[in-house]
Every structure is written in structure tokens, then in C-alpha cells.
Specification:
The complex is a heterodimer. By secondary structure, chain A is α+β, with helices and mostly antiparallel strands. Chain B is mostly helical. Chain B contains 14 helices and no strands. The longest helix of chain B has 33 residues. Classes of the chains: A alpha+beta, B mainly alpha.
């Protein structure tokens, strides 16, 4: 075979091979099914109601067997303190596992910062968890499809399938993923899938004493939480990435990222 | 040995044993050292798997990819570069580049194996990857494409090397051509592994895929020179004039590619500074005058680009030691380039770290003992295979006038 012929044939083979791949994408049975489903889980966080007690973090770790002292957690609470002289302090010691009982800011490495209460401009707490995005960057990058979006909107990880490459952890712009300290696979919030599919609330929703966390089926327009999401001014985190997060926030400040 | 005579297994065995026993003390010391590095790395890697990576590697939720990913990238960049630069001669028929073909193809196999060795200890469940990559592909994932194409690439390069040694040149050219395409596809996908992460400003965009190919070729020229120089030292032979000429052409190509990468670097840095783009600016400034400034100015710019450029130019293709020093510096510089590239995409926090207050600060990372041992093990694999290959394949001789 001459080089020219060889080149021609190679190009033909490559062109031919690329056709069936695109066809595969067009008929995705999951997509077809999802359009007819009547459950799609969403989350609502009212930052005005959060007091930073950390009960949600404790409940989540206990419910989902995440080692208590490990510096990873499926849900966490961040504290934002803005002083009148325009300094901002954000901390989340152990993801707020033990709550914010200390008024000092945890600077890390054992350092703490006293802030004069009279100098505080504004201060608030922001609970965070997986946003269960409509277009999740994490599922796109998983080389073996170990993480996937269930038809009811929940993004899950198959622990027996995960190869532990860390690409999903890298892809998540929210820091919602981490390596499970003892199982060595990617881990994240599942909206307590084992509970919500049995009609129960998630562990964090259940544990929150002030109702700052709520869940709903966003396809059910009569659901009171869905109504809040639909009718009130709610925000989402980092929508500039096109991820379409399904964790909605009431009272989201611009500085929260 | 007379090629027309039928070889018996005994002949082959005695031939190979003869070659392996023909070396000097330094050679065996180098082989032993490489082997020890590999053994230590295997021990460290297995220990990490048993005890748990989070106890043995300095990786966190914030920085999940460390020096092992950088080392993997370094080795596959090197392999792709070797494949692409050597294909200029024996695949695309540029006569002056032909003498470097066999050794370069062999080294491209050795370096990709070194890369796979390192990544096997980085991935938490590597045995699952081998299975699920085949039975459960996710075609939207760049890691899947990269892994699969590099697998294909490895097979093609192995066949190419086989056919080169069997003097079946038409088949070798076919494998070499397909291997080069698979290599480019795989390598640009590796760039995209970083480039398609929307939340990582320092990496995001088409730049990484394009830069990786140019950078691979630049690395290829340095590695080809370095290993050919070392090989002739090991085999204790004077370099043939054809080989000298071939390396001179490689040197010229190297000079051009250094300039290309300088051009890439200038615009990458400029785009990261102008207008202070969020995420990028902090990373670029960390390189310019932050904690990565020594890495950047001394290693990336100095060792990686400027010193080799000057040495390559001044050597005029005749001063072998100058070229050797230039290529050795370049390889050190390129390793630091890969390290910085992987780390800088992560040290600017995209989300708040637990327990730390300021948003605009850089996260810190330093490789753990285990990570360093495994990194060295990667180099051990590459040098072990190189050393053994030199003797096993009798100095990778390419006879003149073989090619059609």
C-alpha cells in the first residue's frame, strides 16, 4: 500500500468510526425516561434561619458513616463575618461539626482571631452540600460512569464501581466531593437516598432545629417548598458554570462562593 | 549473527546473555540502582494501598492531585514526544532523522510504562480501572479517552518496535503512523483532562490540549538527545557520523520547539495578568513573584527553556557535552513545569477550605515521603528499561538505506 492510499484509508476508517459514537449519544434511554418522571428532588436552605449549631453536620456524619474526626464531610456550614472596616473572615472548623460556639475566627494552624463585636458589620452562616446539579460536571468526567445522575435528580456514586482517580473531586466547583477516608472511593451527599426513597427526610433536614434546611419534589407544584423556590427570590451557587444547581438559597450573599 | 541461518533458542539465549554480560561496572551499578528504586516504589505504593492513601499521601479535598499526577503527565509527555519526533524520520521519511528511530520508539515504550507505573499507585483502585475502562466506558470523560487511547498507543508502539527489529518496514511505518495519531489524540485528551474543568480557571480552555502537543515534541528532542548520548557512553562506542547528523537535526528542531514553548508561555502568563482575571491571576502571580517564583524563573524559564536554548545554539551540533548538559537541564526544567502546571490549577481555592478564613490565599502542598519514593520509582522504571534495552537490542542499530 502506498503512503497516500494508507492515509486515505485511515481517514475513511476514522470518519466511519465517529458516526456510531454520535448515534449512541442521541438515544439515551435515561434521558427519555427522565422526561416522564414525576419526582425530581431539590433542596432549599434559608440562611436567615441557620445559627451555625452544626447539628446537620453531626447528623449527616452519623447517618452516612463518615468518620467523625476526619477533615471531610458531606455537608458543612461556613461562617462569614464582615467587619465595619471592610475585612472579611470566613471559617468552617471541621466543617462546623461542633458548631460555632467560639466567637473567635479559626485562622487555621491553631491560630484564632478576636473580633470586636462592635466592629462586626454583618455576619451569617451558610450551610453547604452537594447541589445535585442538572448538568453535573462530576458525572461528565467519571471515566467509568461510577458516578451518575439518577432519574429523580440525585447524583450518586457507586462505591463498588469507583476507581478512585479523583477527577470528579477536581471537577466539582463546589468542593462537595472528597475521598472517603476508609473506603478510598469518591464520596458525596446523596440527599440521604436511603431515607428519601422511603418517604423520610434527609438526616440534616431532620436534625435542623430551626428549619433552615428543607427538601422538596420540584415537579410537584403544590409542594410548599417548591412554591417557595418558584415564587420567592432564591439564589444558587456559582451558576456561571452552567451546572444548574438544585440546592436553592434564601438570602444568599454575593460574597458566598 | 548471520540472519539467514535459522536461530535456535540456545543461540538467542547465548547472544542475549553475551550482550548483557558485556557491560562495565558502572552499568551494573546503574541497573541495580534503578531496580532498587522500583522495588522501593512498589513497597511504598503497596503500603499506601493497604494503609490508605490519605494517610500516606499529602493530598486533601482541596488538592486531590499531587506530584504523582505531575510525574505521570511528565512521562506520557515524554513518551508522546519521543514517538512524534522519531516518526519524522522513519514514518514520514526524512532521511536524516532515521538513525534515532529504534531507540526512540523503545524509549517511548519505556517512558509510557513508567507513567503507567506511577499512575497505578496514584489511583486508589487501579485494578478496577483495568476492568471498568473496558466494560463501562463513559465517552464524555477525558480520562477515559486518554487512558484508552494511551493503551492503544502502547500496543501500536510495541508492534512498531517489533516490526522495526524484524525489518518489516512497511508494517512498522503503518504502526508508527497509527501510533503517532493515537499519541496525539491521547495526549491532547490529557490536556483536556485539565482544560475542560470549568471550575479551574488556570487550566480551563483549549490551551492545554494544544500546548501539551508542542511541549511533548520539545521534551522529545531533549530526551532523544540525552538518551542517545548516554547510550553511546554505555555501549562505549564512538558515534557514527549519521547519528551525529541525526542528533544535529534533532537539536535544530529542539531550538525551534523551545521558541514555540517560550511563545506559548509568554501568552499564557500575559493572559493571566492582563485585567487580573479571577482564579488565573493569583496562580500566575504565584509563579511570577509568589511561592512558585523559584520554580518558575529558575527551573521552568532557566533550566527548561533559556539555558538549553543557549547551549543547543552554542554547541553548533558538534559539542556533544554542551548538548547533553542542555538536554539534561531541559528535562529537569520540564519536570518542574509539569509539577507547577498540576499544582497551580489547585492552589488557588475554588471553594472555601474548612478551617481557613481568607479566601484569597494559596493552599500549600508538599509531596509526602511515599509520593517522593513512588516518583523516583517512575524514573527507576524508565532508566531500568533503557539500560536493559541497550544491551538486549544491541544498541538499537539502524542500518542505512533500509527505508522505503
Amino acid at each position: 500500500m502506498k503512503r497516500r492510499d494508507f492515509l486515505k484509508k485511515s481517514i475513511l476508517v476514522i470518519a466511519g468510526a465517529s458516526v456510531p459514537l454520535s448515534a449512541l449519544q442521541m438515544v439515551d434511554p435515561k434521558k427519555v425516561l427522565a422526561e416522564n418522571l414525576d419526582i425530581h428532588w431539590a433542596f432549599l436552605i434559608d440562611t436567615f434561619k441557620c445559627v451555625g449549631c452544626g447539628f446537620c453536620v453531626k447528623a449527616c456524619k452519623t447517618e452516612n458513616n463518615i468518620p467523625f474526626e476526619a477533615n471531610v464531610t458531606r455537608t458543612w456550614v461556613e461562617r462569614y463575618v464582615y467587619t465595619k472596616d471592610d475585612r472579611r473572615y470566613i471559617d468552617s472548623p471541621k466543617g462546623a461539626l461542633y458548631g460555632y460556639t467560639d466567637p473567635r475566627i479559626d485562622m487555621g494552624m491553631g491560630e484564632y482571631k478576636e473580633i470586636d463585636p462592635d466592629n462586626v458589620g454583618k455576619a451569617f452562616f451558610v450551610p453547604k452540600l452537594c447541589n445535585h446539579c442538572i448538568t453535573p460536571p462530576c458525572t461528565q468526567v467519571c471515566p467509568v460512569g461510577a458516578t451518575y445522575k439518577a432519574d429523580n435528580g440525585v447524583v450518586l456514586v457507586d462505591r463498588s464501581w469507583c476507581i478512585g482517580c479523583g477527577y470528579c473531586i477536581m471537577a466539582c466547583p463546589y468542593g462537595a466531593r472528597f475521598f472517603h477516608p476508609t473506603l478510598h472511593v469518591a464520596d458525596k451527599c446523596t440527599f440521604c437516598y436511603h431515607r428519601i426513597t422511603k418517604g423520610m427526610d434527609t438526616a440534616c433536614v431532620n436534625a435542623c432545629p430551626f428549619g433552615a434546611r428543607k427538601m422538596c419534589n420540584i415537579r410537584d407544584i403544590d409542594d410548599p417548598i417548591t412554591k417557595i423556590i418558584m415564587n420567592q427570590r432564591v439564589g444558587v451557587l456559582k451558576d456561571e458554570f452552567g451546572t444548574k444547581p438544585q440546592a436553592f438559597y434564601i438570602g444568599l450573599a454575593q460574597e458566598v462562593r | 549473527m548471520d540472519a539467514t541461518r535459522k536461530l535456535t533458542l540456545n543461540d538467542i539465549e547465548s547472544e542475549i546473555t553475551g550482550r548483557l554480560l558485556s557491560a562495565g561496572k558502572g552499568y551494573y551499578l546503574a541497573v541495580l540502582l534503578s531496580a532498587l528504586m522500583v522495588v522501593a516504589a512498589v513497597a511504598a505504593g503497596l503500603h499506601a494501598m493497604v494503609v490508605g492513601h490519605d494517610h500516606t499521601y499529602n493530598l486533601t479535598r482541596e488538592i486531590p492531585w499531587g506530584i504523582l499526577i505531575a510525574t505521570y503527565v511528565f512521562f506520557v509527555v515524554t513518551s508522546t514526544g519521543l514517538c512524534l519526533v522519531s516518526s519524522i524520520g522513519h514514518v514520514f521519511g526524512i532521511e536524516s532523522m532515521m538513525p534515532i528511530a529504534k531507540r526512540s520508539v523503545f524509549l517511548s515504550i519505556a517512558t509510557i510504562l513508567a507513567g503507567f507505573f506511577v499512575i497505578a499507585f496514584e489511583i486508589k483502585m487501579p485494578w478496577r480501572m483495568a476492568v471498568y475502562n473496558i466494560i463501562s466506558p463513559n465517552i464524555t470523560s477525558n480520562i477515559w479517552w486518554m487512558g484508552t487511547l494511551y493503551g492503544l498507543y502502547l500496543v501500536l508502539m510495541m508492534f512498531e518496535f517489533l516490526f522495526l527489529n524484524l525489518n518489516k518496514h512497511r508494517l512498522a511505518v503503518g504502526c508508527g503512523f497509527s501510533g503517532a495519531i493515537a499519541g496525539i489524540a491521547a495526549h491532547s485528551n490529557l490536556g483536556a483532562v485539565f482544560g475542560l474543568l470549568m471550575g479551574r480557571e488556570f487550566w480551563h480552555g483549549p490551551y492545554m490540549s494544544i500546548y501539551f502537543i508542542a511541549s511533548a515534541m520539545m521534551t522529545g528532542t531533549a530526551v532523544i538527545f540525552l538518551f542517545h548520548y548516554l547510550a553511546y557512553k554505555i555501549n562505549d562506542e564512538p558515534m557514527e557520523s549519521r547519528m551525529v547528523e541525526s542528533l544535529n537535526v534533532t537539536r535544530k528542531l529542539g531550538i525551534m520547539l523551545i521558541c514555540v514553548i517560550m511563545f506559548f508561555t509568554v501568552w499564557k502568563m500575559t493572559a493571566g495578568i492582563a485585567g487580573q482575571p479571577g482564579g488565573k491571576y493569583e496562580a500566575v502571580m504565584a509563579l511570577v513573584k509568589g511561592p512558585y517564583a523559584v520554580n518558575f524563573w529558575l527551573f521552568e524559564v532557566g533550566f527548561g527553556l533559556v539555558f538549553p536554548l543557549v547551549l543547543f545554539y552554542l554547541s553548533k551540533g558538534k559539542n556533544m557535552f554542551m548538548m547533553f548538559a542542555g538536554s539534561a537541564m531541559m528535562i529537569i526544567g520540564i519536570f518542574i513545569m509539569r509539577y507547577d502546571l498540576v499544582l497551580l490549577g489547585q492552589v488557588v481555592p475554588v471553594f472555601h477550605e474548612y478551617g481557613v478564613n481568607e479566601y484569597k490565599h494559596l493552599l500549600s502542598y508538599f509531596p509526602s515521603f511515599h509520593e517522593i519514593i513512588i516518583t523516583l520509582g517512575g524514573f527507576g522504571v524508565a532508566s531500568f528499561l533503557f539500560l536493559i534495552g541497550e544491551k538486549l537490542f544491541g544498541g538499537h542499530k539502524v542500518e542505512p538505506g533500509h527505508h522505503h
